Amino acid sequence: MTNSKFDTMPAMIFARSSADWELDPLLARDTVAIGDMPLSRALLIKDATYPWLLLVPRRHEAIEIADLDTIEQAQLMSEIAHAGRTLKALTSCDKINVAALGNVVAQLHVHVIARSRSDAAWPKPVWNAVPPRDYDKAALDELLATLRQRLTLTPL
Amino acid sequence: MTNSKFDTMPAMIFARSSADWELDPLLARDTVAIGDMPLSRALLIKDATYPWLLLVPRRHEAIEIADLDTIEQAQLMSEIAHAGRTLKALTSCDKINVAALGNVVAQLHVHVIARSRSDAAWPKPVWNAVPPRDYDKAALDELLATLRQRLTLTPL
Fold first, then answer.
1. Number of domains composing chain B
2. Percentage helix, strand, coil, to 5, in chain B?
3. What is the domain range of residue A99?
């Protein structure tokens, strides 16, 4: 059975593993874990101003998108699109903002943010725009439960 | 000859054409055209503060990344990675910033920006950070010539 060509497919598709990958402590501090997509850990930023996700590819020492191989890049884009569609369906927002900046935290991470014309920073980008606002605990739990259901294969 | 399976491959891969696509006038105003990648038009932002590219998928009415089909999304990611690698090799920058925001101009466009620890906005994102600075004409012409050679299949 182990000679079946299908048995080896996952290893071919994701040849590199998530071994040695650890979430950067600054990213961990500002987020709540949602769960794992095939490539990325999905996190929610602790700022109730906007529904704001972070996708962090579980690849050791990846800093730039070009540090991922081609199949991982395509997978990351597919996860970005899925996260954006999910946020849009959930929040009826006006626009999804997507960004991989990394000037402060080097570990490759992608922001996926639901923006509304009525939000505190619109139409400016969210960074340094307004101070973060705490989530109400019940609202946070409900949002996390929904995101875990719709977004991830493996809740943490 | 037209029955060869190879003749139809480009049409299968990019089933949708760039028909009816036109560059948004605001994006046109702030940029110089570099040329066309397979999916995106590559543009240089007229701001000498940072080497700053815009990639605009030539797809009518695309606003969100999720408006592209799966193969176009993968192609866009591949063009983003290629643009980032090219900028990094050319400028020896410290970090590539990638962003698809679109709060002001709806037409889907992706910023790919070469950031240096010594640039005027570091480590902040570039938007609204410092006023744009004009390129010296000779420097602009040289940068455009290099980018046309390394980045695009079809100089405009």
1. 1
2. 30, 20, 45
3. 26-148
